[in-house]
Specification:
The structure holds 2 protein chains of 2 kinds. Chain A has 4 helices and no strands. Chain A is mainly alpha-helical. Chain B has one domain: 3 helical TM bundles of succinate and fumarate reductases, CATH 1.20.1300.10. The chains are: A mainly alpha, B mainly alpha.
């Protein structure tokens, strides 16, 4: 008998990767709750501040560390979230893979730039 | 092997909009927008590290209408994604999944994110 297989499932991630993705998304989300509240609070005080005020604010060890943690969890959470959106809406396999790779490259470079910037501001004054 | 063209998972085109689905779509939309905001935030940090001139020229953009519009959208997206994200975390531990509760928490999410956005923008003198 000629058994015709159904259209193969396009497996995006292995089972363990799915679990890891799920947990990483939740953990970064929980971490981002206090960090983003701190961030918007900082935004209200820093929005109309001049260069020196902002630089001195970020030169503070606590603020510098909080900004570092905020940026890192933000970018990590962003990659995980964008990955889900891409997997849901982009049908073509190669387009999905290349777009995801592109986003990972761009966001990694951005995250690295932010970390270097935070470090430089901390060392400068 | 040729793949059958199937509709993609969130069937937006065949789905009647309801509060729950609309809020879910906004969650994704704000998430994507916040990723863009992260890049702008990074530029702000980089400008601060590079020079006072670069920082000032960036700061000037944030005071113009388009800069303010972006900031308003960013602050709202952050509060909305935060509030709705907490709603999601409750669902993950199995709380608030009844239809009536999802509607109540949905309306609360809209209310709290708009209220916090306006408060923040006024305190920060953006508006």
């Amino acid at each position: 008998m000629n058994i015709r297989l159904l259209t193969p499932l396009r497996i995006l991630m292995s089972a363990s990767e799915v679990v890891r993705h799920w947990w990483a998304q939740r953990l970064t989300a929980v971490v981002l709750i206090p960090l983003s509240l701190w961030f918007v609070y900082s935004l209200t005080t820093m929005y109309s501040a001049n260069y020196e005020t902002v630089a001195l604010w970020l030169n503070n060890t606590t603020n510098s560390l909080l900004m570092l943690f905020f940026i890192l969890s933000l970018y990590y959470h962003a990659v995980l979230g964008l990955q889900v959106v891409i997997e849901d809406y982009i049908e073509s396999d190669w387009q999905r893979k290349s777009l995801l790779l592109l986003i990972k490259i761009i966001l990694s470079i951005a995250a690295l730039s932010a970390v270097i910037a935070i470090f430089l501001i901390y060392m400068e004054f | 092997m040729k793949l059958v063209k199937r509709p993609l998972s969130p069937h937006l085109q065949v789905y009647k909009p309801q509060l729950t689905s609309v809020l879910s779509i906004i969650h994704r939309g704000t998430g994507v927008f916040l990723s863009l905001g992260a890049l702008v935030l990074t530029y702000w940090l980089v400008s601060l590290a590079v020079s006072e001139d670069l920082f000032n020229s960036f700061h000037l953009h944030t005071t113009f209408w388009y800069g303010k519009l972006f900031l308003i959208g960013f602050v709202f997206s952050l509060y909305y994604h935060l509030a709705n994200g907490i709603r999601h975390l409750f669902w993950d531990i199995g709380l608030g999944l009844e239809i009536s509760t999802t509607y109540k928490s949905g309306y609360f999410t809209i209310f709290i994110s708009v209220a916090l956005t306006l408060t923040t923008l006024f305190i920060g003198r953006v508006l």
